[in-house]
Amino acid sequence: MDFKWKKIMEAVGPAAALAFAAWLLQHMLEQRYCAARARYRDLVDALGMSTEGKRREVIREEIDMCHRRAMIMLHATRIGMAAAILLLLSLIISALDTALKADWLKILGAPGIMFGLVLALPAALFVVLENVLRKKPG
Description:
By secondary structure, the chain is mainly alpha-helical. It has three helices and no strands. The termini are far apart.
């Protein structure tokens, strides 16, 4: 087996860029999820300590909204993780294909890249939805 690092790096480079972008997306999704979840927990704690009346109703409404936001971001995070895993696996398969020159690896790697990119789109759309809910007055 004759390893040519230049060929491996050329084959892996574009896939590595996609995997890095997926990692950045995943990091952002996790931050948004953690922030929504923390806000939800703070409001639940505030509800337990709040007095009766209008303030309690307002906190309940905020809890419902924050719970929806947290669940949206949880779904986005899960979908983003699947996209990142597929893109990382495609990166590994690309390196193996270059090193081993096995045609069946191409058949395995191409769908991983396509599905990884396709999954990144709904994850991003969930972020847009969460952002709309966050900005919604009331």
